[in-house]
Amino acid sequence: MSLAAQVKDTGMAAVPQAVVAALWLLGLTAYQAASVASQPPPDLATGATAPISEDANSAETELLPSIVKGPYLLWPASDSMTIAWETDLPADSRLDCGLTTPYEFCMEDPNLVTLHSMTLMGLRPRTTYFFRAGSGGTLGCKSSFVTAPTRDCSFRFAVYGDTHSDANEHAAVVQSMMGSHPAVVFHCGDLVGTGRDYEAWRPGFFDPARPMMLTTPLVPVPGNHEYLGRGPLWFFHFFVPPSEGGWWALTYGDVRFIGLNTQLDYAPGSEQYQWFLAELESSEFSQALWHVVVFHNPPYTCTDVHQDDPAVRACLVPLFDQYGVQLVFSGHSHAYERYSRRGITYIVTGGGGGPLYRLVEDTVPPIRQFGATLHHHCIVDVNAPDQVLRLKAVDPNGQVFDSIEVGSAPVTYPKPE
Prior knowledge:
The termini are far apart. 19% of the residues lie in helices and 32% in strands. It folds into 2 domains: 3-46 and 64-146, Immunoglobulin-like (Sandwich), CATH 2.60.40.380; 155-407, Purple Acid Phosphatase, chain A, domain 2 (4-Layer Sandwich). It is an alpha+beta fold. β9, α4 (167-178) and β10 (184-187) form a beta-alpha-beta unit. α4 (167-178) packs parallel to α5. The strands form 3 sheets. Strands 1, 2, 3, 4, 5, 6, 7 and 8 form an 8-stranded antiparallel beta sheet that branches. The protein has 10 helices and 21 strands. The relative contact order is 0.11. The chain has helices spanning 3-6, 17-25, 54-59, 167-178, 201-213, 234-239, 271-280, 283-287, 310-315, 317-323, and strands spanning 7-8, 30-33, 67-74, 80-98, 105-121, 128-135, 138-139, 143-146, 155-160, 184-187, 218-220, 248-252, 255-259, 290-294, 327-330, 336-341, 344-349, 370-372, 377-383, 388-394, 400-407.
């Protein structure tokens, strides 16, 4: 479909071909609706996708849908952003957007679905865009986002994890986090307690995280709780990661972020391991100043519930050493822990809302440098001029209880024989 057929002005008239070239100057050269927007959600019991019958469509024409999740921002880049939302009834998708309000352009998809996902493309780096999503005559609240910067730009990101089980604690962490105004937020997994239970997602995650996700893109990895229960893997439905396995890589400013799924096979020879190896050898990785990896199961931890993950230590840590990763985030243990090994800083940030774990004496090297049992999040300032990352661990009251600096010069070790 041509751009003129996809993009319409707010008066709903088609944009003439002569105007299409002008859209490039505004940084809105193209739009792309994600494939999930043309499919209804999987059946709760089987995960199968079923077409919507004409009878169902006609019966629901008198009802206005409600937006029950979102809108929320996903998969940020310097030239694109994905906006998703869910309605309680199948409906079309509409996204008003522009560099100003009133909005200059409208993107539409007539397919009747409940999960709506649209990706704006051709955007300007580090630019504010205004938007409002809607379906079936129901419009969501007005909001805005900022695209990712190019290289040599400073920015702030946040990391947290294990938000399941207590929506109030999760909401308190989110409120504290948003006081720091991060540009992007990464989640280390275990978003909800029972990931295959559809009913767990709205009260357990989307409601408490809504203030954050409306203005700040979230980039998550799955944890073990995303696989608990019966039914579909709703994590992959709501977040539609770039790979079917849930692993991803993206560049934000001078940082190359990599997300891994430690719930699936990552041993040498596996699909995920080979993908990770190719990413470590990529030009995107080598050109980045910092390299940050995010996943769920920690290689190093010492609590009354979880200890070091031997598989992560055996399969992934040697690659971190070999390719000069500087910072690794994980969750799973519901506490805050900081380790250092061979120049790499390892952070366990599992205090997003779940029941807390007690720290126990660490006797297996590397020995924990600092730890605390409390709900929290991590804030990291990327200081491009100084070429340093400044990390702070922050409690729900906004108090900083740990801080470190990470330099940009990676330390690499040869591949073990």
